[in-house]
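Exercise 7.
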Amino acid sequence: MTRTAYVRPYRSGDREALADICVRTADNGGDSTHLYPDPGLMPALFAEPYAHLEPELAFVLDDGSGRAVGYVLGTADTRRFVDAFRAVWLPRVTARFPEPEGEPGTPTEAMTALLYRPERMILPELDEYPAHLHIDLLAPWQRKGYGRQLMGAFLHALHRKEVRATHLSMLTANTPARAFYDRLGFHVIDVTDPGPLTYLGRSTEGVEPRGWAGSEGRARETARAGSEG
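Solution. The predicted structure, written as tokens, is:
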């Protein structure tokens, strides 16, 4: 029987796949293995804290066999998330990733320094977009409509929480990603001194629920849960 990929809520068993997707997409959309010797660093920054702190806002693209091949995750409230990151998440990873001393001299040191500065996520220009997100898909699953399904699930979940808008940051040089976000209705948010990043935002309204958020996705997840039980 042909397996059909679908979007579903994140499960704790997806953690390793989540980390792998993050590593394989963290170099401007490509594999970052050559940049960071410890494969846990990028997930500790950009994936695992969200799944740990707000798992209800984490969704994966299931390839039809139970394996996650893409994800979207984030927070409903960036300021609250920053507080939780520092108080709850950071103590879990400090032993593995000690805070570097002095100016960073390597990519690993630069990213580890970011780990200790979660307040970097708080910018006054973003207050009207309190939620934020990260979305990544393995290369074979890109440009097939699955990114739109993942984003739809996330935006729909935010809307149900009465969160009015969300934002994301991306490397300005990543033009394919920018084209994707443009198609989904994101617009530029002007930020003072954004550096190499572009900030984009959009309302959570007007989202057509797809994937797990629609009846077909719920039926698939219910059937799978029953077979695993």
